[in-house]
Specification:
Length: 632
């Protein structure tokens, strides 16, 4: 687990500056506090910041060269089955000098070329220089756990784990990308392959990048398949899921440094802790955070699980200080990122890193096994679609006039559902997911901003994602869209940035390709069974966990934004969102922002998600585009 950076110049006579690559790596020091390395040779330069997890000796240092000297790699991540791949390669005559998974990737690429990706089970982003072919090959893991940003200019290509590394290159000027920012307002994150910086792109999950003197080529090497569906009983499905999760957990316990687990007390993380307790040789170290407010506090449930499995349990009640954490949040996330659950995730990562260097988690249980309300809502909405369109439009118009109440109330969810009554399945999903839907966004944004964003239609982007899904099942379609968008661009970004800010590695058994494939091929009725979400996973959990954990309502991992904007964040919100700096940028209609602030503070309507979105937007702009750096 590390930070990587590098540069390739198209002209072989144009050497890469080692000090520039070093400076890029220095911006990523938090991702790799255990050491660094830079290697340059003519038109290529590779840099690395090391977080030592496997083979702590100098033999595991990077950039690393292959035994024959032809290939050089810089690698971020973990290959969980590296021992198995190593044994296979030894059968092909390969000989290894280290115990590291990095050398396994090198030899796999030397032996199989680009097909090496089919053999690698892990989270990764890496770049390999082929000295003989004069070619740079880069790749990102299937789910998109590890980030890889790159920028192409007329002279060559630069890459890094985080965009802030590019700020260390004198040849790079930080400019905002209007199309990306326009999309962010809807999604609460910048969707792949865009980035908030003009000229910077994100390598999509399950893609490789080949760069040589002829140019740059992007290729997809893996696709999660939801069909064909096997014929199997419910009992067989439970056994298959349990076996896949057990093996995924087992391979993620390999570590040369202390290891533990995040434990929220929800089903997903609790199942992982249960499996770890069965597989580990000693007590599992578990880490939980809670809040004073009961609506956000899951500590009692986490405590139940910890006691059940005799874990070495650590917990912390946090009182989030938005003013204190905002500068750190904006700086570390690199781009505008408005998922407020990043705040407790950063607190959790900071606490966990005091005791361990690796933590397993329950990420992607919902996206694999249909854990969100929107899957059920989509099924219900499909039945509403048989009603005449005029009737559905009338219902939607009435719903827009109903006060939504608090963000977590049944009334607010009903209002959101009815507002989408007249939409297509794709547009309905977009409305449920977006902070600002297209009509509201066009009230918010000035015409010149909309024009500069071009054809950046966020709902259209989702429609294109729907069109690429290869399944006829509605539930599986939504799962596939979430796997392609919300999971890699929101949830995995949240955890990667929060953990790497403190030099902590996060591992996700639910993102093992065998678990993902097993879940995808299950009939959707075993995932969404009547009104019961995550049905088959809950049947797995019943073999491991008490009913009080399985049958309790789902709780979010968030912070009280709604109250903050009427209290702790009120003055900052007025200063930032109604101040002259934001108005002078020409993005937004100040009157619209003033209205939603007023409505939220008066309790007429809840706008806290939208206000957080706009607050992060402006603070990001000050930090990275104005060059203000961390701070308000």
């Amino acid at each position: 687990m590390c930070g990587i950076a590098g540069r390739y110049n198209f002209q072989s006579g144009a050497p890469v500056s080692a000090p520039v690559v070093q400076a890029m790596c220095d911006r990523l020091r938090h991702r790799g506090p255990d050491g660094d390395g830079v290697w340059t040779a003519g038109p290529v330069g590779l840099g690395h910041r090391r977080l030592a997890i496997i083979d702590l000796s100098p033999l595991g240092a990077q950039p690393m060269h292959s035994a024959d000297g032809r290939f050089t790699i810089t690698f971020n991540g973990e290959i969980y089955d590296f021992d198995d791949v190593r044994h296979t390669l030894e059968g092909h005559g390969c000989r290894f000098r280290s115990r590291s998974d990095t050398e396994v990737i090198l030899e796999a690429y030397r032996t199989w070329g680009v097909d090496c990706l089919r053999h690698l089970n892990g989270m990764f982003a890496f770049a390999i220089w082929d000295h003989e072919a004069r070619r740079l090959f880069a790749a990102r893991d299937r789910a998109g756990k590890k980030p890889f940003y790159y920028r192409i200019d007329e002279d060559g290509v630069s890459f890094a784990s985080e965009p802030k590394a590019f700020l260390a290159d004198p040849a790079f000027t930080a400019e905002a990308d209007p199309a990306a920012l326009f999309q962010y307002l809807s999604f609460q994150y910048v969707p792949t392959p865009l980035s908030a910086f003009r000229g910077v792109s994100r390598l999509p999950p399950a893609h490789s990048l080949t760069i040589d003197a002829t140019g740059v080529r992007l290729d997809r090497y893996w696709q999660l398949e939801y069909e064909p569906k096997p014929t199997l009983s419910e009992a067989d499905a439970v056994e298959a899921v349990l076996a896949a999760l057990r093996e995924a957990t087992r391979v993620r316990l390999v570590s040369d440094v202390p290891l533990g687990a995040f434990l929220s007390g929800g089903i997903d993380s609790s199942v992982i802790v249960a499996l770890m307790a069965d597989l580990a040789s000693g007590p599992v170290r578990t880490f939980s955070i809670g809040f004073d407010e009961a609506a956000w506090n899951e500590l009692p449930y986490a405590r139940q699980v910890a006691e059940r499995f005799g874990t070495d349990h650590h917990e912390l009640v946090v009182r989030p200080d938005a003013m204190a954490i905002l500068p750190k949040l904006v700086w570390h996330y690199n781009e505008p990122y408005a998922d407020s659950s990043a705040i407790p995730t950063m607190y959790l990562a900071e606490m966990t890193r005091r005791s361990v260097t690796v933590a397993l988690n329950g990420d992607a249980g919902d996206e694999n096994f249909a854990g969100y309300d929107r899957y059920l809502a989509s099924r219900v909405a499909g039945r509403v679609d048989v009603l005449p369109l005029t009737l559905r439009r009338g219902v939607a118009a009435v719903a827009r006039r109903i006060p939504a109440g608090g963000s977590r109330t049944t009334q607010s969810r009903l209002v959101r559902f009815l507002e989408a009554a007249a939409d297509s399945r794709e547009r309905r999903y977009a409305r449920w997911m977006f902070h600002f839907d297209e009509p509201r966004k066009r009230q918010l944004c000035r015409p010149e901003f909309i024009a500069s964003a071009g054809h950046a239609d966020a709902a259209g982007l989702l429609e294109a994602t729907f069109a690429r899904v290869r399944t006829s099942d509605d539930v599986d379609t939504l799962l596939a869209v979430d796997m392609a968008t919300y999971l890699p661009d929101d949830l995995l970004v949240k955890v990667d940035i929060a953990t790497m800010a403190y030099g902590l590695e996060a591992r996700s058994p639910f993102l093992d390709p065998r678990v993902m494939a097993c879940a995808a091929r299950l009939p959707s009725s075993l995932k969404l069974h009547g009104r019961q979400k995550k049905y088959v996973l809950k049947q797995v959990a019943r073999r491991l966990l008490p009913a009080s954990i399985i049958d309790r309502p789902k709780m979010g991992f968030g912070v009280p934004l709604e109250r903050w904007f009427r209290g702790e964040l009120r003055d900052l919100t007025h200063d930032v969102l109604l101040g002259s700096r934001l108005e002078a940028r020409g993005y937004f209609d100040r009157r619209y922002i003033a209205r939603i602030i007023s409505e939220h503070e008066a309790g007429v309507r809840t706008w806290h998600y939208q206000l957080w979105n706009l607050l992060i937007f402006e603070l990001w702009h000050r930090t990275f585009i104005d060059g203000q750096g961390p701070g308000l």
